[in-house]
Amino acid sequence: MTYTTESIRKKFLEFFKNKNHTIYPSSSLVIENDPSILFTNAGMNQFKNFFLGYEIPENKKISSIQNCIRAGGKKNDLKNVGKTSRHHTFFEMLGNFSFGDYFKKKSIIYAWELLTSKKWFNIDENKLLVTIYEEDIESYNIWRKIIGLSENKIIKTPNKKNKSENFWKMGKYGPCGPCTEIFYDYKKNIKTNYLKKNKILQKKYIELWNIVFIQYNKLINGKYLKLKIPSVDTGMGLERISSVLQKVKSNYDIDIFKNIIKNIKKLNNVKQNNKKSIQVIADHIRSSSFLIASNIFPSNEYRGYVLRKIIRRAIRHGYSIGIKECFFYKLVPVLIKYMGSSGKLLKNNEKKIIKTLKIEELKFSKTLKNGLKLLKNEIKQIKNNKLDGNFVFYLYDTIGFPIDLTKDFCKEKNIKIDIETFKDEINKRKKISKEQKFNKNNKKIFISIKKKTKFKGYNFYQYKSYIKSIYKNYKLTTKINNFEKGKIILDKTPFYPESGGQIGDSGFIQSKNGIFKVSSTKKYGNFIIHTGKLISGKIKIKDKVVSKINFKKRKLIEKNHTATHLLNSALKKVLGKNVIQKGSLVNDKKIRFDFSYHKNLKVNELDEVENLVNKFIHKNKIVKIFFTNFKKAKKKKINFLSHKIYKKNVRVVSIKPFSCELCTGTHVKKTGKIFIFKIISEKSISSGIRRIEAITYKKAISFIKKQENNLEKIKKIVKNKNLNLILKIKKIVQNNKKIKKENKKILKKYILLKSKKILKKKYEINNKKIIFSTLYDESNFTILKIIDEIQKKNNSVIIILINISKIINLKIKISKNLISFFQANKILLLIFKKINGKGGGNKYISEGIIKYYKSKKKIIKKIKKIIFSIIK
Asked: Would you give the distance in Å from CA 307 to the centre of its chain?
């Protein structure tokens, strides 16, 4: 039987559907509310709350095919792509999970049946072997007695220094357990001694499936507690199983990659002379396309930086195999054509992906051209056949020119690189780098799943309840004393926990003996935590309390949340249905709404959005709230967030006929309560993502009043009382432009005259031309233009300009052909050894500030003396 990648996907899901598993769709490549991971990098990521016991799934048996990215963060395979035949930045993880249903026996039987049964994948049993954790006797017995594997096909991996290939941990502490892995042997005979010595890392073996048994909770003290409800987490890479079933030895020879690689070779008639580069391009078009489809765009920070790195790495490899024009974006239609069912996400975002890749490629092409130009010029000037490491770092760090291209170019010209200096500069940069770190010192509270809080805040603003748990400094305690901070869990609460962009409620929890001021409220699984401070008396566990939320604040939040729903619908109506919500913040002061859109919004578009929202506010429509089945909600096309996991029954907020979406937040009963909606700002926050900030009710009225007051002030300033204010301002702007043009002309003449005057005072020492001149109260722009003008007429000169104002500013510029004799930054340092000052720069241009306490004339004479002695 011939297996295509698409048929393998279908067969895998069909197998687990037959075993009564619920099939979950792939989650987004960015997991919402989980800053501990950069991208989704495993099938289990979207089920983290199930594993931690914060939530319980309706069906305890789940299967999925998860899109994964391993490029950046803890799991990073970026550098391995192209070096090995097995690594990818993007891959699909086939997985099955059990949360308290089946455990070791069934999960092993399922895996073996799927792989070896004639009905399913029909892999020869003789080609498979397994590894287990040496202390996991239960798994060993299942493989030996139930599956019937011979002893030489079960490899036990030891636990050395608390580390084993077959013991999985979520982190330093927390859920963990042994795992068993299934390997495929490409050759005829399995030699177990060979395996043991080489730790199963030889090329002839391929790891197919990892089955993890999460049965312990590792405590901070190092002890392992057995979990009451153990779980199963399995993962099998689609690309790897495809290579086995399609009988090829490399993942890059499977059907998906074959077709992509064929099209890469067609570009510019590329031949198979650089396998590594072609594989890098084929891999990177997948990861970059899926990231853009997930609304991640190239930027200089965080996830966007990783995407930019992937795209530029692919372009660089294209350049190295002779593709000199923009090519990368042309591969998107090819990718979509051969990705099968996984390509639906790409198809829906095809235009966006192509546009984003094309823009990024054009930007990087300019970088490559500029870098090559600078590199060629520098190579012309070197005399010792060695390229300066500082210049290589400048190309890499400032221009963005890849070090690999610098190496390749120098290799062609037989030029060596001062690589040690380059590495020193890289190490210096790493030390001062302020890379954002996630989950550092992130303390967690582990609370039993039985701790459930009933939320009563939809209908009540205060409620009687009792205290179930108290935490101080992340530890369970029995009471909180006066002025101490802590966290409280109640059996019932009117406090809305932070969710869906809406901030959590604040207020008070009051007992007979104390008052606890709640500053924030958050939800963790089934329980709600009230964080705050005891402002009087004491509160202890099991106390009967009255919980009161800040009523005025909640009412303002409700107005803003309902207005957010209206804004979302208005944007879709005005800009199109492709607008996708990317995040929101709803508090008592304002609305912040992020959405995907690739153009700047025009003034008339913003006006239309604002008018639409106000139209529905003034119609005073009823805000209807009801519950329905999630499947029915999807069929009715009720708006929901595609990356979020929803329960079977969902809450719907409907404002007919304008807005209908899934939401757990609090809302007004009628839209008229919002009174008025006003957009105060609209801007781009990253490539393809825009942000609107808006206000409602009294804040909107105050804002409009303030604008009216400002308008009156403007009228007074421009001395215009009539209605032609815009015409008057236009005239002022036009006059201002004329004045600026005239000033530019005057400045140009001034610079020419000043340069001529300075050139008259030219010195010559040891056949070197020196310009030394003093200026007064000149701007930095003017000084730089004077330097440019002097250099136009003298291409071999040392320029020293001193500008005297409140401080003494010193600029040194060295012509390129004199760099082997003098460097600007070194001259500056020698001056600072004898005169107190500070500054910096490079070998071509440097500047500094001189601190002076005596006469300025004496300081200038001293500087001149030092510089002339250096040149002599």
From this structure: 9
| Alpha-carbon distances of 252 from 84, 237, 243, 258, rounded to whole Å | 10, 13, 8, 7
Beta strands in 501-622, from DSSP E residues, in sequence order: 507-510, 514-524, 527-537, 539-540, 544-549, 581-586, 591-596
How far does Cα 693 stand from its chain's mean position? 22
Taking the domain 454-549, which CATH number applies? 2.40.30.130
Report pLDDT for 200: 44
Amino acid 853: pLDDT:
58
| C-beta separation of 664 from 586 below 8 A | no
Q: Which residues contact 398 (CB under 8 A, 6 or more apart)?
A: none
Q: CA-to-CA distance for 158 and 835, rounded, in angstroms?
A: 66
The domain ranges of the chain are: 5-248, 255-366, 382-435, 454-549, 557-708, 756-871
Cα separation, 27 vs 290, in Å, equals 12
Name the fold adopted by 5-248. Answer: BirA Bifunctional Protein; domain 2 (3.30.930)
Q: Global pTM?
A: 0.58
Cis peptide before 178 (omega within 30 of 0): no
CB 355 within 8 A of CB 349: no
SS3 content of the chain, % helix, strand, coil (to 5): 40, 25, 30
Q: Is 55 helix (H, G, I), strand (E, B) or coil?
A: coil
C-alpha radius of gyration, the chain, whole number: 34
Question: Residues 230-255: pLDDT tens digits?
Answer: 999 999 999 999 999 999 989 999 99
Structure tokens at 518: 């709640």
Judged on CB neighbours under 10 Å (0-12, 13-18, 19+), 760 is exposed
3-state SS string for 160-223: ECCECCCEEECCCCEEEEEEEEEEEECCCCCCHHHHHHHCCCCCCEEEEEEEEEEEEEECCCCC
**Positions in the chain whose pLDDT score sits under 70:** 1, 32-36, 73-75, 161-162, 170-171, 187-204, 268-273, 429-451, 642-644, 687, 721-723, 852-854
CA distance linking residue 812 with residue 772, whole number of Å: 10
Is 557-708 CATH 3.30.980.10? yes
Q: Identify the H or E element spanning 232.
A: strand 224-237
Q: CA 566 to CA 581: how far, in whole Å?
A: 13
Strands 479-480 and 514-524: unpaired
**Are 112 and 236 a contacting pair, CB within 8 Å?**
no
Strand-pairing partners, residue 515, are 510, 536
β 128-133/154-157 pair status: parallel
Give the pLDDT score at 141: 95
Q: Which residues contact 792 (CB under 8 A, 6 or more apart)?
A: none
Place of tokens 């993890």: 212
Nearest 5°: the CA angle 741, 744, 750 is 145
Q: Helix or strand or coil: residue 450?
A: coil
pLDDT of residue 451: 62
**Contact present, 534 and 671 (Cβ < 8 Å):** no
Distance, in Å, from the CA atom of 170 to the CA atom of 172, rounded to the nearest integer, reads: 7
Q: Are strands 808-814 and 845-850 parallel, antiparallel or unpaired?
A: antiparallel
Q: How far apart are CA 508 and CA 493, in angstroms?
A: 11
- The predicted pLDDT at position 435 comes to 38
pLDDT value, residue 273? 61
Compute the distance between CA of residue 255 and CA of residue 341 in angstroms, rounded to an integer: 14
Q: Where are the beta strands (DSSP E) in 370-496?
A: 386-387, 416-417, 454-455, 462-472, 475-477, 479-480, 485-490, 492-493
Nearest to 529 by CA among 490, 578, 568, 480: 490
Structure tokens at 70: 């391993």
Helix (H) or strand (E) holding 302: helix 302-320
756-871: CATH topology: Diaminopimelate Epimerase; Chain A, domain 1 (3.10.310)
Q: How many residues does the chain have?
A: 872
Domains 5-248 and 756-871 share a fold: no
